[in-house]
């Protein structure tokens, strides 16, 4: 399965959630400490955010630029974050909006490598087979339509359930199921075309 390289177990996630909430509180409080707290939030989320955006916008350089814009926007709008969901969830929504705007403005195909992985190869596989597979996936992901890439990332990287995905994308549950099904099929077709192997 596609995996976020920063994904962790439940205990770590719980501790991160508590720390995250405390940092957001400090940012909202303002003052010099707000800047320190926000820098820690950036450090906490920078890695997965760039990875996530790399898969959406098509290359790491653009992903880093968009990630910086996302964090600036998050800082400017922090008072509008109510805390009903995790800060990471709110940040992901900003990231998706910015990635969409970025791709719409660029109007060109990506040409540089994605830090991606296949449905079957672990992200941290540094062996020759893993490296080759990631190179193939660079091409496969680049050929996928944006909506297919988006829903595959949400489901397989962010591990969001379909109901949450449907709410996140503002589409019906049936539509989300169909979009994921088509995205998987499209992924498989492109992958097989490039490798001769079914996913």
| Proportion of helical residues | over 70%
**Shape annotation:** globular
Strand content: under 5%
CATH class of the largest domain: Mainly Alpha
Uncertain parts: 108-131
Q: pLDDT average, as an integer?
A: 79
Report the count of strand segments.
Answer: 0
Biggest β-sheet strands, sense, barrel: none
Provide the number of structural domains: 2
Radius of gyration: 17 Å
- Give the topology string: H per helix, E per strand: HHHHHHHH
Structural class: mainly alpha
Q: Note the gap between the termini.
A: 11 Å
Q: What is the CATH architecture descriptor of the largest domain?
A: Orthogonal Bundle
CATH topology of the largest domain: Rna Polymerase Sigma Factor, Chain: A
Number of helices: 8
- CATH homologous superfamily heading of the largest domain: RNA polymerase sigma factor, region 2, helix turn helix motif
Note down, in words, how this protein is organized.
It is a single chain. The protein is an all-alpha fold and 199 residues long. The longest helix has 26 residues. Helix 2 runs antiparallel to helix 3 and helix 7 crosses helix 8. The protein has two domains: 113 residues, RNA polymerase sigma factor, region 2, helix turn helix motif (Rna Polymerase Sigma Factor, Chain: A, Orthogonal Bundle), CATH 1.10.1740; 84 residues, Winged helix-like DNA-binding domain superfamily/Winged helix DNA-binding domain (Arc Repressor Mutant, subunit A, Orthogonal Bundle), CATH 1.10.10.10. The chain is globular and about 55 Å long. The protein is 71% helix and 0% strand.
């Amino acid at each position: 399965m596609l995996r976020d390289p920063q994904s962790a177990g439940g205990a770590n996630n719980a501790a991160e959630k508590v720390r995250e909430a405390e940092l957001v509180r400090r940012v909202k409080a303002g003052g010099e400490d707000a800047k320190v707290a926000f820098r820690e939030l950036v450090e906490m989320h920078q890695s997965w955010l760039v990875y996530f955006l790399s898969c959406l916008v098509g290359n790491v350089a653009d992903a880093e630029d968009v990630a910086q814009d996302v964090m600036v926007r998050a800082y400017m709008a922090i008072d509008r974050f109510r805390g009903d969901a995790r800060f990471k969830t709110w940040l992901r929504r900003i990231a998706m909006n910015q990635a969409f705007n970025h791709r719409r403005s660029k109007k060109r195909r990506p040409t540089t490598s994605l830090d991606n992985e296949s449905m079957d190869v672990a992200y941290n596989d540094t062996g020759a087979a893993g490296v080759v597979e990631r190179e193939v996936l660079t091409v496969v992901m680049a050929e996928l339509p944006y909506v297919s890439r988006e829903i595959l990332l949400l489901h397989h990287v962010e591990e969001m359930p379909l109901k949450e995905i449907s709410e996140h994308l503002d589409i019906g549950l049936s539509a989300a199921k169909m979009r994921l099904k088509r995205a998987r099929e499209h992924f498989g077709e492109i992958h097989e075309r490039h490798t001769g192997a079914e996913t």
